[in-house]
Fold:
Amino acid sequence: MDAHGEICRAIDDYREKVVAVSHEIHEHPELKFEEHLAADLLTRAAKELGLEVERGIGGLETAFRAEFGGDGPTVAILAEYDALPNGHSCGHNLIAGAALSAVAGLKSIAGKFKLPGRIIFLGTPAEEGGGGKIIMIDKGVMRGVDAAMMAHPTDAEWCTMPALATQHIKLKFRGHAAHAALAPWDGSSALAAVLQTFQSVDAMRLHLRDGSRIHGIITDGGQAVNIIPEKTECLFLARGKTSRYTEEIGARVIRCAEAAAMATGTIVEAIIEGGYKNLINNLSMAHRYAAHNEALGTRSPVAPDNIPTGSTDMGDVSHVMPAIHPAFAISRHGEGNCHEDAFVAHADSTRGYDAMIRVAKAMAMTAYDLLAEPELMAATKKEFATRRES
Ligand SMILES: [Zn+2]
Structure:
C-alpha cells in the first residue's frame, strides 16, 4: 500500500461531500468575522471525519482547530472562508474545500500508516481585511506548528505567490468651517488638503520601486456644498515587496498629507491601521507541491517575481514558520480574476471543483512527505531560517 495512492483515493471518495460543503459556503457568502455558517459546516464535516474540533480559538468566534496524528512534526493546513460584498469573488469556499479534502485524505491513512507526525486543520477567519491569521499568531494559536500551507484560486497556476506587504493609513484632516460664498477667507478647507494629498501621492509614485502600489479613497469629503469643509477623511493602502519598504512608502504618503495640511492651513492626523507582511514562499515545500501537482497532470511553476499580485495575511504566517500559498487556476486569463464579479461563478463551477480536488491531493501528499521525510522537513526549516534572516 502506498500512502500517496491511498490519500488520493480517499480524496476522490470525499468529492461529493466536500463539493456540497463548498457550494453551500458559496451560496451563503459571509463577510469577515461573520462566517458562522461556514465555520459550522466545516467543523461539522471535521467531526464526521472523527476529529475533535475546538471552536472560538484565539478569541475569534469563527476560528477553529482540529488535530490528529502521532508523535513527530506538525503541519497545519489552513482554510479561509470569508466572502466580499459581491459574494465569493475571491473563491475562499474553494480554499476551505481544498483544506477540508486534504485533511480527509490524511485522516483516512492516519490509522493504516500510523501518521509520523501531526496534522492540524485550522479555520482562519477574515482574510479580507481583518487579518484573522495575525490575531491567531498573536494569541499563540500557531505555536508549535512546523510548517503551514493553503492554496488560493486565481486565473493562473503557480506553486508560489509573491504576495505584497501592505500598510493601511487613515488620514483625518481638520480645517475651519465658513460660509463658502459669504466669507470663504475665514475658512480653511479640509477637502483641499485631501485633494492636494492625492496630487502629491500621484507625483511621488513614479519614484517608487517596481511592484509597489498606492491606492486611496475619500471616505468623507465634507459636510455641505455651501460650507468650507471643516473635517475630511481618506484611506490609503500602500503595498510593497517587503514590509520594511512598505513602511517607507507609508511614511512618504504621510509626508504628502503633512505638506498638504501645511499648504492649506489645516491639520492632519495620520493613523496607521495595520497591514499584512509580504509572503516568503518556502521553495523546499513549493517544489514538492509542484512535483505532486505535475504528477496529477498540471504544471505549477515558481511564479516570476513581477507577476501582478495582491496581499494576504498568510504573509504574516510565512514570517513565523515555513509556508506555501500556491495559486490554482479556476478561470482562464481574461475570464475574470479575484475580487471581480465574474469570478463568483468560477468559484462554483465544475472546473473550480476539479481544481480544488487536485490541489487538495497535492497539498495532502506534500504534508505527508513533510511528516514522513525528516530530510525534507530539515531542508524546509533550514531555508526558512536563512531567508528570514536575509
Ligand atoms: Zn482571497
